[in-house]
């Protein structure tokens, strides 16, 4: 057994569409990385209305404290710097996630449910607190943010007051975004830059809330989020009643066998003792049997969860004060790139289930003037 540092932090974990994640602890298309622990079962149900027990399959990001009630897990933002976020302790390789939830209210508050891979594939649901009529869908492949034209908004009846079930059904051929059983959007593999931008590597599930209009956020992000967050209207809470996850290729772990980032390169490692099997992409047996148990060190919320800095190009500097505030030598630094320009917030409704009509929900990225959001987080993952 060994410890591996992981669980990048709060805000970046659940960044909205305009701020595709650009940090990963290890990018398998750039170097050799440890295998990803898999959900070694066909499915997993986490019912948060029964309290904290359901959290056992997830890790909380730094500074995250969830509370529980009749409406399930409560992701509450009460003040600047908070971004309660959890992520699954396992990866799935194609599958379906269904989340029954209510989005947080308040201009400048963002709620997110995101599938995300080590090489920065991403499939998103996002709700803006200033918009109680729509939900945004988005995706990214291998962190490609050169064109922000993938976000599409769909109408939904008051997502802040009503519980709805939002699902993503993800296969090698297509991705479906589904609201209360109705498919609102389908992305075909070939329509994502001939597959090159198609999300296709093992994903974790991240959920949380974040102040997109918080102090220190780049102007484009604040505008996209609907304006500055007014913390005197806090608290603002996203409620998650339950999460159902189906893994189409259950495995004890997944390996990237080359640096292509293609689904064909993913090795599905089944564990003989697990009782689980899978039809294979590429089948192999594995002697290692990663546990999906995680423990996360509790951290003081008051030390400030997120540090926003600006920089250029690929380089960035870290707020060392915040890093040392984490008081354990094992902080990870995460960076997220944010478009310089403003996002279009006008919702676009596409009635079609199979086409990618609709305008972009995001702005344009000025390469060379990347704005990086640096966040520090801490977590341990027992392999
Ligand atoms: C990134 O996406 C854009 C838009 O689809 C595409 O033109 C470009 O070739 C992609 N870049 C890579 C490296 O795939
Ligand atoms: C923030 O919200 C409070 C309470 O609703 C309100 O009194 C105040 O004017 C708001 N501030 C801004 C800058 O909108
Ligand atoms: C997996 O299990 C199912 C039923 O449990 C069985 O029908 C199938 O043949 C198994 N597949 C493999 C590859 O062992
Ligand atoms: C699974 O992998 C094994 C070993 O590589 C191969 O012989 C078999 O044909 C594969 N099965 C499927 C259904 O692809």
TrEMBL record:
It holds the Pfam family Glyco_hydro_16. InterPro entries: Beta-glucanase-like, CHR-like, ConA-like_dom_sf, Glycosyl_Hydrlase_16. Residues 272-295, 350-359 have a biased composition (Low complexity). It comes from the Eukaryota. Residues 1-20 form the signal peptide. One of its GO terms (molecular function) is endochitinase activity. This is Crh-like protein. It comes from Cryoendolithus antarcticus.
